[in-house]
């Protein structure tokens, strides 16, 4: 057919992706590991428009413009090139997460777009191939192609373009029974001051803490994979929290500093620490924004959500479990 619809969910990294070694191919400097959520899906329809002279992109009912439009058109150019089909497209996307709030809307967005565009343009890709394709739109989108826990391989540096592209994709991570939840505290749903793309570039270029964090992140990943396999949520949580705080430390040390953490972020972190003193397993992670995601046991998620809600001063709180990978929907 000449159209397709796909849905994808956001993911939250427990081992962060922060820093590229190749901007064009979106190749990261380190491996990362995430949980795909069962909330905030993005649904995207792609229809080929053989008569049209340009792509039409509608996000949440409004025509896309500027940087958002440019990124999507560049992505479609890549799909057209691979499929050897020149036609322009009409893209309509509906996002249920506030954009620009560090809630990974680019991850669900480009994962859904990759799956829908690949089908619409007649590219038959494996899940691995879809993950590589989604990566080109936004690095974290490579992980949202898969449900549950996924690891995104950085691949080996210093290879030719083709080999480098092939070596960097996400895949599911084996886990024991964890029954995890992520409590999402929306401290501020407004758009972020600095895009994660620009912020990670500045961090790599100027932060003296970047290389040490990247090195420790490699150990964090090894230890977290082992903890996931044996079902040790406590160790998973401890590693996730230190990895995220370390990432923010690299940004704070950048010149000029990039600071996403807000006063309310720290208030929520205090509430998480208090939960732990009260014997509740809860560990925080933050992305390119002030919002806090708290990893805990599903059975304790309501208690964690209540504590976090009180601390988040009026911000919305959502409870997520592990969600599904990106998939086509019937048209
Ligand atoms: C802090 O995937 O949005 O959420 O590849 O430039 O599009 P681009 O960046 P993006 O960065 C996500 C950064 C993060 C950590 C993570 O999701 O691993």
TrEMBL record:
Limits of the Diphosphomevalonate decarboxylase-like N-terminal domain: 8-162
Recorded superkingdom: Bacteria
InterPro entries xref list: GHMP_kinase_C_sf, Mev_decarb, Mev_diP_decarb, MVD-like_N, Mvd1_C, Ribosomal_Su5_D2-typ_SF, Ribsml_uS5_D2-typ_fold_subgr
Top enzyme class: lyase
Any GO MF annotation of the entry: diphosphomevalonate decarboxylase activity
Domain Mvd1 C-terminal span(s) in chain numbering: 183-311
GO biological processes: isopentenyl diphosphate biosynthetic process, mevalonate pathway
EC number: 4.1.1.33
UniProt KW keywords: ATP-binding, Lipid biosynthesis, Lipid metabolism, Lyase, Nucleotide-binding
GO cellular component: cytosol
Family according to the record: Belongs to the diphosphomevalonate decarboxylase family.
Protein name, per record: diphosphomevalonate decarboxylase
Organism of provenance: Streptomyces aculeolatus
């Amino acid at each position: 057919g000449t159209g397709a619809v796909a849905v994808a969910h956001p993911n939250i990294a427990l081992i962060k992706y922060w820093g590229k070694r190749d901007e064009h191919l979106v190749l990261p400097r380190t491996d990362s590991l995430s949980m795909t959520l069962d909330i905030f899906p993005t649904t995207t329809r792609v229809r080929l428009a053989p008569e049209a002279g340009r792509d039409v992109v509608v996000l949440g009912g409004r025509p896309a413009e500027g940087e958002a439009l440019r990124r999507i058109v560049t992505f479609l150019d890549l799909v057209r090139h691979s499929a050897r089909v020149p036609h322009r497209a009409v893209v309509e996307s509906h996002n249920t997460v506030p954009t620009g709030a560090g809630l990974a809307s680019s991850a669900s967005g480009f994962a859904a777009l990759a799956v829908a565009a690949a089908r619409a343009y007649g590219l038959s890709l494996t899940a691995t191939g879809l993950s590589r394709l989604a990566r080109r739109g936004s690095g974290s989108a490579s992980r949202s192609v898969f449900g549950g826990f996924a690891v995104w391989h950085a691949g080996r540096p210093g290879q030719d373009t083709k080999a480098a592209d092939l070596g960097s994709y996400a895949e599911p991570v084996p886990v024991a029974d964890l029954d995890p939840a992520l409590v999402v505290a929306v401290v501020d749903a407004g758009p972020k001051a600095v895009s994660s793309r620009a912020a990670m570039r500045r961090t790599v270029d100027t932060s003296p803490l970047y290389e040490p964090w990247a090195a420790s992140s490699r150990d964090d990943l090894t230890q977290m994979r082992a903890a996931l396999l044996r079902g040790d949520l406590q160790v998973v949580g401890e590693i996730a929290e230190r990895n995220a705080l370390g990432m923010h430390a690299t940004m704070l040390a950048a010149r000029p500093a990039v600071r996403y953490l807000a006063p309310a972020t720290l208030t929520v972190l205090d509430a998480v620490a208090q939960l732990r003193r009260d014997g509740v397993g809860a560990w925080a992670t933050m992305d390119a924004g002030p919002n806090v995601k708290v990893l805990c046991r599903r059975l304790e998620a309501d208690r964690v959500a209540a504590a976090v809600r009180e601390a988040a001063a009026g911000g919305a709180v959502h409870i997520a479990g592990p969600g599904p990978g990106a998939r086509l929907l019937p048209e």
